User: Fold these one by one.
Assistant:
Number 1:
Amino acid sequence: MNIRKATINDIESIKLIYNQGIEDRIATLETDVKDNEYIKNWLFRRPEKYTTIVLHDAEEILGFATINPYSSRCAYSDVGEVSIYIDREYRGKGFGTIILLELVKIAKNNKFHKLVLFALEKNKAGNKLYEKIGFKHVGVFKEQGKIEGEYVDIVIKELLLD
Ligand SMILES: CC(C)(COP(=O)(O)OP(=O)(O)OC[C@H]1O[C@@H](n2cnc3c(N)ncnc32)[C@H](O)[C@@H]1OP(=O)(O)O)[C@@H](O)C(=O)NCCC(=O)NCCS
């Protein structure tokens, strides 16, 4: 198992894994599956400090993690927002832990001051993973978004890096 920076050749694999997360209705408020162009615009048309990494074996990509801009306002330029997705077949085997620890190292190297994230409250695996890595609970946006007509609560977490 290895981790490397994502390249545009990984777009197809990243798209498949991200769409699994969308279809499972546990990872994101997005409900429409995405195409390659969406992934390219999201991950490959932005400054280098917003790094995307992939976890892979000899044959395939097993997951990806990325630092997104938290806000376009310059006051927040040292804040990154985390996204992490592991292929359905490989969840619960420790890979999320491995790739998120690496992403935190990269965030420090890229001079971020903190990482934040927003997770569905019912996402047990995600919330457990973040707490394990050291993210602190900031609060809950009650009934913040809708999935299939139902309001859902969103947990906010942060990790100070200095
Ligand atoms: C959330 C996700 C990234 C976690 O990665 P993972 O490889 O499955 O997690 P790990 O195996 O590293 O486990 C991390 C911790 O969560 C726990 N965990 C894993 N799956 C769990 C589950 N279904 N329910 C409860 N806890 C779970 C593990 O026990 C572990 O804690 P421990 O080391 O103290 O035992 C992965 O499940 C995933 O991609 N899910 C779909 C997309 C998603 O939800 N992304 C996050 C959006 S906020």
Number 2:
Amino acid sequence: MQQVTSNVFAETKCRGCNFGYLVTSEGVVMFDSPHKPSDAVALKAEMESKGPLRYIINTEPHADHWSGNAFFNAPVVAHEGVLNRIQSTDMAEHVRRVGLFGPDEPALLEGYEANAPMITFKNGMTLHVGNHTIEMIHMPGHTLYQAAVCIKEEGVAWTSDNIFRSVQTWIHEGNPDLWMTALESLRKLDEDIFVPGHGELCDKGYLNEQSALVQEWKEYVKGGIERGMTKDEAISNLTDLTDRYPMDVGQDGMAPVVMRMNVANLYDYLTGSWPSPGAPNFATYANWPGSR
Ligand SMILES: [Zn+2]
């Protein structure tokens, strides 16, 4: 766990998304939750020494950001799209997959209940906890339900997966144009310490790199469409963008799968059939052709 400021802590080296917490004068606020149950149990023990847990804030709907909510006893706050996604998740399949993360995990998953958001917002919301002000701002891009979460007194913003810092970017349900807008919105924030959804901490200096990458993906698929490729041909032939960055922790070997999912999604987007009803999400990528 990395100490980001005097009151903010973040973990960027565990399987799943980055997660962490803020210590206020009235207790602890947690940001996203560990994907791996044993990581959640360890985090819970650490936070208990810092004060009572008051809220959990989820930054987006992908399961790696909310799966660990279940191990904490506090109300969850998130965009309403996160609640909808959790409610439509096949929990038996979700638990089965998370149970594969290690030998100690299945026992921790017995009686699993997701702890879905109890408090939701559409455009934004501000929480006042002790001496801290936590502002949530809807920023669609990587999905339609992303939020940036700004801790005003600390100068820190949790960006969700609108930033993948120097690890493979997932665009499997992203809207590349909204994503560009989201990155410009992040640039306008007061906060300049960013905890991305995945990868190491960064600042506004990384925004151009993230923007160029999403743009490159979009142009790459657009090129295939202009050469007359069908969707299946694009998925089979457009395989060259896997080497820009390594995969994040615990995603070894998944680069070709992410590549196909990104191409499929961008193909639908660019041909006007987006969002496609059968679009894969993080919870179901195992069913995607060629995945492990
Ligand atoms: Zn995500």
Number 3:
Amino acid sequence: MKVNVLGSGATSPSSRRACASYLVDEKYLFDIGPGSYMNLMKAGLDQNMINAVFISHLHGDHVYDLGVFLWGMATRERKEKLLVYGPKGIAALISHVLSDANTPVSFLKFDIETVEVSAGDTIHGGSVQTAMGEHAAYDLIYRMGDFCYTGDTRPVLATATLAKGCKMLLHESSFPARLEKEAHTYWHSTSVDAARIAAMADVENLILVHISPVQEVNAAEMLEEAKENFHGRVMLASDLAEFLF
Ligand SMILES: [Zn+2]
């Protein structure tokens, strides 16, 4: 499997990070944060190769490039159906994105099929399992084969269970451990939380993701303390990184 990081950031884009977006095997897009479309172009990848989008939760830093992707696909003559999975509200969001921006629907020569997912559902022909995170918005944790992605969540056992034995866990790491109280108050995880979940799940590789502009100064600290708490491989995601596993 291959993961292209299209957005390793959070909250709002910075000069070095777009917001949450990860492309698996050039076909499956997990979250679609602002700036991710531009990174897809920079990576030299084709938006029309994407056949399914998986949205973790309905917060702006995970969905704001949705309209950009749809319009990019429309203007590059996409014909194949696009599947979009997400929590309840995803269908309404897509409808608003198109209609409120006065997008002439006749320009879209492809169908968009939305599937509203409840945590625990197995989807996409049985190839993707889901679990529930703990976040301010309803958060879906996804597993596809050896890849698992948390979206935004406090540290939860559900992640460790879903990710059990997988090769690559992308776990949000919004704060360093010394800001644990703040992290949990705002329904997020620290880097040490991510490391402990990775250890419980016995994954091979932990990728820390969801680095906000405010926490950029703490990125090296987060990586170090995650390494101290998990003895598999730990990496900090960066935009345009490519992971093969
Ligand atoms: Zn977020």
Number 4:
Amino acid sequence: MSDTEIRLFFFLGCLGVLVILELFMPYNRATTKTRPFKRWLNHFSLSIISVLLTKLLLPVGLVGAAIYFQSNGLGLFNLLNLTGWFAAIAGVIVLDFVIYWQHRLFHTSPLLWRLHRLHHIDPNVDVTTAVRFHPVEIVISLGIKVVVVFTLGIPPESVVLFEIVLSSLALFNHSNIQMPDKIERIVRFFLITPSVHRIHHSVIHEESQKNFGFSVPYWDQLFGTYATSSRQAKDQFQMGVEDTVNTNENLLTLLKDALRS
Ligand SMILES: [Zn+2]
């Protein structure tokens, strides 16, 4: 199995399980009922455009780049002779740390926010929102990751592991599921749960400046951006961006949202 096949296997597996859970234990029943197919088509189209664009720009992929850097002894890890499981785990942690700060940057930079806004103007967040990103944001994110993998010499194993873990957990924390409270409170110690990440999608601006992590809650806790409660009532929780009306029209409208002032 190639790394692409392994990643696709995990992605489709998690997607399938979470779609079923959304049917049986939805957080917002209206979201699962409001003919999601058009949204889903838009979201997967965005994802396919992003994959094609990144394949065009970096045909070997991030893993291929990591293999090249490693075989040429490039990067800090290789210079320090860091190898094996220690290097692989350290690489995953570094990449996750970078993604946390990248996410914050996409919120604080007005120019980058225009791209990231597409992810946030979705008022009906569900598992497919995890792939709802502007293709240009995906390209910039790839560029950042290439620089990090190159300068630190992060091993290819870390890249594969990180991509699988991040995409699986992003699907999980965007899913429209309501976990039983007792279980949720335990899982919350280790992972960003759907109810925690939902606060990041709150229509209230200050709340959208919380919970930037996509995997573990520790970066948010360390840098003071962690929140587990919202000012909004749980049964009337509104997601999206203030002053944005309907946003799930067609693919072109979504792509052109970055040009809106
Ligand atoms: Zn965000």
